[in-house]
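testing teh design pipeline on a random one, pls ignore if ur not involved
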């Protein structure tokens, strides 16, 4: 079903205004112009001019010979009754001429720098040429065409008199002086009742970029680039790897002011440079126009994610937050590099209409983030103009402004709708939810959290979280389940419903961070679980909702935090209830005066007096988060931070074959202090150490971080391996020609059997390729580790 919304009405306005703007363009060929035409039932004969063969499309071809060519004003054709000039169709009404040829000579005093535009009315197929170069064909097969080539389909009804869209013609094809535009019109059948030809050619208008460019829907091999122009034109993107020539091109097929091109076939995890423009001119280029394709799902490199909540205010705080973010990024090691993702948490425009988006979003970020940060967004209540009817119809510009995946183009489970979606970026799975829009559920318009059993978004959410295999899981939702800021989660029904109905879903599937806005403050919870009631419950018994190990600030910066220190929060990759951090970051633009609400007890940090943005990096199994706050004394300040790590703190037994080396790697990303209780000289500050242990007892190797938060222990012993198949009790089966003892780690490379009624011992058993153990009747294997 076609939607008509405010952006469509903007397009309608443009359809009225733009032709008026185009009145200043010079028209080279107008409807009603006199054309030379050949309707003789054959291809016009070629000519020799100054020793050169010239076909009928060439500029030097002479079409004034009366026997070959006729003249008449357009519209030219037959059979419709509205022709200014009736062309011939041949002696047989059942075997009419298949192709008719047209030429028009035009004189240009100087070539228009922005090129030209042409449109036609044709029945049925057409090919256009300018100075012997094909510029457009429609309704005809590709490749060479002859007099007998039939149009692909017959044109009928209103389409016979409809003008095509304007087609761009490069300025390079026109020359000062005499030029010729030629056309051939083909019938679809030999007994066609009619033929139509008319054409207009004009100078292309000067084109101005009015929005963008901006980046949407990044994936490992594709990127969508969007922009807007003041007049309809054919959009074109050139692109190439940074540091190389921009040899890639992608062009639109029709004129429009809303330009959108999907670049495909790109290299994975590479930075590209690009330009946007028309077929004849570049409208925006420069060193800031770059984008990075997504990395492989198993990448170990650092992923950076910037999150802006409630940014579309168009006020001084929005500008200050932008500048603080840019300064923070410039301060990072290696200097400014755009974040991999820019995620908007809703209320991206505080009026929701297209003009407000232009002035308070696109104009604010035009020359910085939009150029090189791929954007994914969710809507807030203000994007819907706080209007229940719009929430039900989804008839808002937001959905036309942003291009998001609906068919899992970037991973996740296909949602089939632009209202909610998910995507993968490296090891991170991101779920983007619409908390204000409604769907008809059992005859009633309901939001996502009104009915988590029947609402299609809730059903999809559970399917998506259950399906993902990515180790990091983030959810973005505009409304927060916990806040004591410009909104109160103790009294507002939507926020209470989210806490009661959505939080259990997030926690059940092991969501790590839930990002929210709406409340114009910054608040960040401890990792919590099972708290779905009022804050008084948390105050009464925090240990029921927060693990003892998670009672710290999680800052991991050496600062004190009561008696718990500031060690990182620890989780595993398992999609089971562990704990979830809830972040409210709704002060990237709007910053409301705060009343007498205190701080929520579930929050590890609260900032109600300054704006900012939220920034995360994920590197393998480590996540670091920062609140980048505006500052009156500096360009920015990081007032809150936390670190989370997964699958750290290992205790592992490592068997090694005699004479072989083994690499031990810390499970965490930090700094490293290696030691061994059996050696006073063993030490290293690297993440990995390489050992070639000598035969003997088990040796322990311990790696810790300098803040004494993290520790791995590896027990290493040279394994006694099988050298041939046979019986465990045969010394010749084993390296060293002796039987394993309770202190030995056994390495099985062959098929080894334990005789019946025999008990054998080992410190551990390690299977290599071909290794197999077959116990006999009443035999026993005792393993001490």
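output:
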């Amino acid at each position: 079903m076609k939607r008509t919304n405010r952006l469509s009405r903007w397009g309608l306005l443009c359809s009225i205004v733009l032709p008026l703007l185009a009145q200043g363009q010079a028209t080279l060929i107008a409807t009603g112009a006199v054309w030379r035409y050949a309707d003789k039932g054959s291809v016009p004969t070629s000519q020799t001019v100054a020793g050169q063969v010239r076909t009928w499309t060439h500029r030097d071809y002479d079409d004034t010979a009366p026997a070959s060519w006729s003249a008449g004003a357009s519209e030219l054709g037959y059979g419709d009754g509205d022709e200014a000039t009736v062309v011939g169709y041949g002696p047989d009404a059942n075997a009419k001429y298949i192709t008719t040829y047209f030429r028009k000579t035009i004189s240009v005093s100087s070539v228009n720098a922005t090129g030209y535009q042409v449109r036609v009315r044709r029945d049925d197929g057409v090919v256009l040429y300018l100075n012997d170069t094909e510029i457009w064909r429609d309704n005809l097969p590709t490749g060479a065409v002859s007099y007998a080539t039939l149009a692909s389909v017959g044109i009928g009804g209103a389409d016979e008199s409809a003008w095509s869209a304007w087609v761009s013609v490069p300025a390079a094809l026109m020359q000062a002086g005499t030029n010729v535009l030629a056309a051939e019109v083909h019938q679809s059948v030999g007994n066609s009742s009619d033929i139509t030809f008319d054409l207009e050619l004009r100078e292309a208008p000067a084109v101005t970029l009015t929005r963008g460019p901006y980046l949407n829907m990044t994936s490992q091999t594709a990127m969508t680039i969007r922009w807007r122009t003041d007049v309809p034109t054919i959009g074109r993107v050139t692109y190439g790897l940074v540091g190389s020539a921009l040899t890639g091109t992608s062009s639109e097929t029709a004129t429009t002011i809303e330009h959108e091109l999907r670049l495909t076939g790109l290299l994975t995890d590479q930075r590209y440079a690009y330009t946007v423009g028309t077929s004849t001119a570049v409208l925006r280029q420069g060193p800031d126009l770059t984008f990075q394709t997504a990395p492989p799902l198993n990448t170990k490199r650092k992923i950076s994610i910037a999150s802006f909540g409630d940014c579309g205010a168009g006020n001084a705080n929005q500008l200050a937050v932008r500048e603080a973010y840019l300064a923070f990024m410039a301060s990072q090691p290696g200097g400014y590099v755009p974040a991999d993702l820019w995620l908007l948490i809703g209320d991206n425009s505080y009026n929701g209409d297209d003009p407000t988006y232009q002035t308070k979003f696109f104009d604010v970020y035009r020359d910085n983030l939009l150029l090189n940060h791929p954007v994914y967004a969710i809507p807030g209540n203000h994007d819907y103009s706080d209007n229940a009817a719009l929430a039900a119809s989804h008839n808002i510009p937001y959905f036309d402004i942003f291009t998001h995946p609906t068919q899992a183009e970037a991973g996740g489970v296909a949602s089939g709708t632009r209202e909610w979606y998910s995507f993968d970026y490296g090891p991170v799975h991101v779920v983007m939810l619409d908390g204000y829009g409604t769907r008809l559920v059992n005859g009633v318009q309901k939001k996502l959290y009104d009915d988590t059993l029947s609402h299609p978004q809730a059903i999809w959410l559970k399917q998506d979280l259950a399906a993902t295999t990515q180790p990091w899981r983030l959810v973005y939702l505009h409304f927060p389940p916990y806040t004591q800021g410009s909104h109160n989660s103790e009294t507002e029904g939507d926020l209470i419903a989210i806490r009661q109905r959505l939080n259990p879903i997030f926690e059940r599937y092991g969501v790590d961070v839930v990002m929210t806005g709406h409340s114009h403050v910054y608040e960040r919870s401890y990792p919590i679980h099972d708290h779905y009631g009022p804050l008084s419950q948390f105050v009464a018994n925090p240990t029921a909702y927060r693990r003892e190990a998670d009672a710290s600030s999680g800052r991991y910066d050496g600062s004190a935090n009561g008696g718990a220190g500031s060690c990182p929060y620890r989780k595993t990759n398992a999609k089971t209830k562990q704990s979830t951090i809830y972040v409210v970051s709704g002060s990237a633009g709007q910053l409301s005066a705060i009343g007498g609400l205190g701080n929520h007890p579930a929050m590890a940090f609260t900032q109600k007096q300054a704006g900012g943005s939220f920034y995360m990096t994920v590197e393998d199994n480590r996540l670091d988060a920062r609140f980048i706050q505006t500052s009156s004394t500096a360009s920015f300040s990081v007032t809150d931070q936390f670190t989370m790590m997964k699958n750290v703190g290992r205790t592992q037994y490592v068997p090694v074959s005699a004479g072989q080396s083994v690499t031990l790697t810390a499970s965490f990303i930090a700094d490293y202090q290696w030691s061994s209780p059996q050696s006073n000289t063993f030490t290293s500050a690297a993440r990995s150490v390489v050992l070639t242990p000598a035969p003997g007892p088990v040796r322990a190797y311990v790696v810790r971080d300098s803040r004494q938060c993290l520790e791995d222990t590896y027990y290493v012993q040279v394994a006694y391996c099988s050298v041939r198949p046979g019986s465990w009790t045969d010394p010749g089966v084993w390296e060293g020609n002796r039987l394993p003892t309770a202190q030995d780690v056994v390495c099985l490379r062959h098929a080894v059997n334990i005789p019946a009624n025999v008990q054998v011992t080992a410190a551990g058993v390690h299977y290599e390729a071909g290794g197999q153990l077959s116990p006999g009747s009443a035999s026993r294997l005792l393993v001490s580790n």
